């Protein structure tokens, strides 16, 4: 988003005379191949940027090797210079592109996303990667909670966390609810409010 804020309002001539090398990293969200050139969209927490990767810009043989290994969801690092496409899209003309982290599982289809509501809740990480509206909701929620927490801390309050499951039954005289923690292979007791 810093690149867009700094260069979106400038013309292609102004941008191309700027000789600074741009370095970015992000998750591959889309990849469009057109023969010996490709347009790749990278996304990070700040926004999206388009990369232009061509066979002539990369070292000999690197383009074909890269396209064979590159999948949606991979995290890549790129270096290059900025320019604007004919449609006015701010783009980085890459002379270096590396896969930093390989995605173990594919991302949902970019046009349909996660349609199944239950799958969105079960695989929240996929929903947050592919759905900008869900990500914005979580960012706003996080900022609200941080604001409330800071408000209370500024007024001398202390945050106390009480566990929901305990090793020893306690609280009121009611019979405790017993459950089994599979990962720890322990019987545990649900906390009972003493009031």
TrEMBL record:
Is the Lipid metabolism keyword given for this protein?
no
The organism that produces this protein has a lineage beginning with: Bacteria, Pseudomonadati, Pseudomonadota, Gammaproteobacteria, Enterobacterales
EC number(s) reported in the record: 6.1.1.6
Q: Please report a single Pfam family linked to this protein.
A: tRNA_anti-codon
Q: Any idea where the Aminoacyl-transfer RNA synthetases class-II family profile domain is? A: 138-195
This enzyme catalyses: tRNA(Lys) + L-lysine + ATP = L-lysyl-tRNA(Lys) + AMP + diphosphate
Annotated coiled-coil positions are none
What top-tier enzyme class does this entry carry? ligase
What organism is this sequence from?
A: Salmonella enterica subsp. enterica serovar Kottbus
Q: Name one GO cellular component term.
A: cytosol
- Per the record, the gene is lysS
What InterPro entries would the database entry show? Aa-tRNA-synt_II (IPR004364), aa-tRNA-synth_II (IPR006195), aa-tRNA-synth_II/BPL/LPL (IPR045864), Lys-tRNA-ligase_II_N (IPR044136), Lys-tRNA-synth_II_C (IPR018149), NA-bd_OB-fold (IPR012340), NA-bd_OB_tRNA (IPR004365)
What's the protein called, per UniProt?
A: lysine--tRNA ligase
Q: Which GO terms describe its biological process?
A: lysyl-tRNA aminoacylation
Example GO molecular function term? Answer: tRNA binding
